Amino acid sequence: MQRHLRRRLLRPAVAALALAAAFVVSAATAGSVSGPTVTLDKQRIRPDERVAVTVDGFQALNVTISVCGNEARRGSSDCNMFASEGLKLDTDGTSTLVGIPVAAPPEPCPCVIRVSSRLNDEIATTPIEIIGHPTAPVVDGPTMPNPLVVSIEAEPAPPGVFERARASIGGPLLYEVTVRVRNTSTVPLRQVVLSGSAVRGNDQLAALALDDVGEIKPGQTWEQTVSAEVPGPSLGSVEWRVAASGAGPTVLASDTTRQRPLLLILLVMLLVIDVFVLAIRLVVRRRARGEIIDPAVFCVTEQTRVPSVP
User: Fold this and answer.
1) CATH entry 2.60.40.10 includes domain 20-30+145-260
2) Which CATH code of 2.130.10.10, 2.30.30.240, 3.90.870.30, 2.60.40.230 fits the domain covering 37-130?
3) Domain spans, the chain
4) Each residue's pLDDT expressed in tens, for the chain with a length of 310 residues
5) Rounded Cα–Cα distance for residues 272 and 97 (Å)
6) Please, are residues 196 and 26 in contact by the beta-carbon 8 Å criterion?
7) What is the per-residue burial (b if ≥16 Cβ within 10 Å, else e) of 266-304?
8) Are residues 61 and 96 in contact, defined by beta-carbon separation less than 8 angstroms?
């Protein structure tokens, strides 16, 4: 009776596991860019004319606004720091607007308006044409070893009733994976290529459907969250990897998730216990059969027994 009951309990679980062996499903939301920005009310101006500058997205409370030549490739040395303007940003979450005179930079154009925090950990630039200022080929500054900072974070997606039951027996599990790429250089990056996947050991479980990054301006962060389903059996560790190339050396990032399908573990434990009990019963039955005396043998023995002499 107990054996039949266990079989009835195990059949739905086995059927669910077979149904859970599905291919990878991957979906994505569109990528977005966030971080420091600077915009102007006009892009073409004469020296010493005023331009309206709108600053937004900075975490710092104070920034410096400078007019720079050479696309500010070499940092402050390309900028007119003597004529730079300090600005205290609004703390209510709104953009800050200020008017500044455009002083000629020490280097030829292409020119930019550069806004930077005190520690230069937040930078935003926007191009500007200064009428009459000389133009020359851009001279790169010291090459940054890694102009990109890349991160990846994977979390199980909020499950429904069916998804929760399916994952508890080791079936496919849906994850929400967030990839972030930050431009730490002083120039816009337009050729960043991303590739991402989920792997277990040497097996690729899922490919992340990441968008083309497009342009990432200095100091900005591109971010995208994709949904990826890891096929069953969903047991143990999964490593999520992303690689960013096209802007200097390839930058790698990874994250690890772990899944423990409790119902599957419980079913395996019940199966082991069941096998153990059956093995004990088999041993007991064999021993019992060995102790029973065959009736035919007993009769022959009694007939051939010689009576003792008194």
Assistant:
1) yes
2) 2.60.40.230
3) 20-30+145-260, 37-130
4) 444 444 444 444 444 444 433 333 445 577 888 889 999 999 999 999 999 999 999 988 899 999 999 999 888 899 999 999 999 988 777 788 899 999 999 999 999 999 999 888 889 999 999 999 999 999 987 766 678 899 999 988 876 555 555 555 556 788 899 999 999 887 888 889 999 999 988 888 889 999 988 889 888 899 999 998 888 766 678 899 999 998 888 999 999 987 765 555 566 666 677 677 777 777 777 777 765 445 555 455 555 554 555 4
5) 71
6) no
7) ebeeeeeeeeeeeeeeeeeeeeeeeeeeeeeeeeeeeee
8) no
HSE-up of 151 (CA within 13 Å, CB side)? 8
